[in-house]
Amino acid sequence: MADLRNLLLNHRDDFHPVVPFMEGFDKLHEFDMTAANTALTENIVLDVDRYSGYILSQLTLFNARYGIGGYGEHRTVYGRSSVFDPEVPGEEPRRFHLGLDIWGEAGTAVTAPLPGRVHSFAFNDRYGDYGATIILSHQLENNLFYSLYGHLSLADLEPLQIGMDIEKGALFAHFGEPAENGHWPPHLHLQLIGDIGDAWGDYPGVCRYSEREVYLSNSPDPDLVARLYRYL
Questions:
Q1: 10 Å Cβ neighbour count for 2?
Q2: In order of start, what are the domains of the chain with their CATH numbers?
Q3: Which residue of 35, 67, 146, 192 has the fewest C-beta atoms within 10 A of its own C-beta?
Q4: Could you tell me where the beta strands, DSSP code E, fall in the chain?
Q5: What is the pLDDT of residues 86-97, one digit of tens each?
Q6: Half-sphere exposure of 210 (CA within 13 A, CB side)
Q7: pLDDT tens digits, residue range 46-72?
């Protein structure tokens, strides 16, 4: 949504960090989850322990606190889960990623980048899905939009109520362990959504490549809010 993108650009200096980051000390490493990354083999991707080990080894190698990447990325890794398979065999699967992934340690704090309210939350507990998920609604210059946080700790859902106010900078979630985050290496999936329709506790974070333009228009780059790429 171009209008949402411009709105966020106009407020780019107003957002609170989504994860703790010490400028000048902490480092980021950009991950490639496409077929171009030949080091990320199928044997690694299909084993969550090995996959987690790969992420950790890369962060250690590059002395990085977080890995980052994925927005607008056409990924082969989604072949690990039937969640992304077509409903009709032979049709196009979902492989195009619509969020920003921030890879790091389980338990990493997630804080609200701007004031919001709890729109919905759910435990999407299918293998390869979001796991524990929270969606916040936001008003900015009388414009309504949403932010989705996936792969969280299940305990983060317990205190929530629909309509609960979340203050800017408030700690409201944490990176989940694989058993509660959809069986992925610990990370945060951050996604912005203009029109959420009737979605509740869930919204597609991966679409068909052929549908990418429609979905990208409704889910602009989350780094407009996270603003982490400036540290690479």
A1: 9
A2: 2-231 (2.70.70.10)
A3: 35
A4: 28-30, 66-69, 94-97, 100-103, 109-111, 116-124, 131-140, 143-152, 165-166, 171-174, 187-193, 206-208
A5: 989 999 999 999
A6: 3
A7: 999 999 999 999 999 999 999 999 999
